[in-house]
Amino acid sequence: IEENKVFPDLFFVDNTLYYKSVKSYLDNFDNVKVFLYEDLKNEPEKLLKDLYTFIGVNPKFVPKSLYKVYNKSKVILVPRNAFAQKITQLKKLKYILPPILMRYLNSLLYKEEVIDKESIEFLKKSFKDDVLRLQSIIDRDISHWIEKYQ
């Protein structure tokens, strides 16, 4: 990347592909179980029971913090224009204006960051083959990872 011999986008995409990594584990270890984040998110108790059974511990144990959310992502807001960029540099405004007025001002100055269609198309093409190959080795349909962006 430093020598500009590859496109940085390709470097970052390549490091997020799962097939090679999972295949490497399956090729080198006898007893491998693949868990998906979406299962943890959607059915945490079921995933934990499966995990505990796999590693040979009490599958009935449920940690008290199972449903506690850590490091929750926030919506990323970006300034709507150059004027908004300048206004947002006035950090003292939040101490001067009432909170309701500040929220209204923020709604005028900011918009939610979204991925443009060109980037989505690039990512779909980059990940499609990897997702299809991955689902074949984990014996699980994950085609919705691709279809979500069709």
List the topology elements.
Blueprint: H1 8-14, H2 19-28, H3 37-42, H4 44-55, E1 77-79, H5 82-88, H6 93-96, H7 99-109, E2 110-112, H8 117-138, H9 144-147
Helix pairs in contact: 2-8
Name the beta content range: under 5%
Spatial extent as radius of gyration: 22 Å
Main sheet summary:
2 strands, antiparallel
| Average pLDDT rating | 84
Helix/strand-derived category reads mainly alpha
Task: Supply the number of helical segments.
Answer: 9
E-strand count:
2
From N to C, what is the helix and strand string?
HHHHEHHHEHH
Your description of this structure?
The chain has about 150 residues and is mainly alpha-helical. Helix content is about 55%, strand content about 5%. The chain has a two-stranded antiparallel ribbon with strand order 1-2. The chain is flat, with a radius of gyration of 22 Å. The model has no long low-confidence stretch (mean pLDDT about 85).
Quick take:
The chain contains 9 helices and 2 strands; from the N terminus they run H-H-H-H-E-H-H-H-E-H-H. It has 150 residues and is mainly alpha-helical.
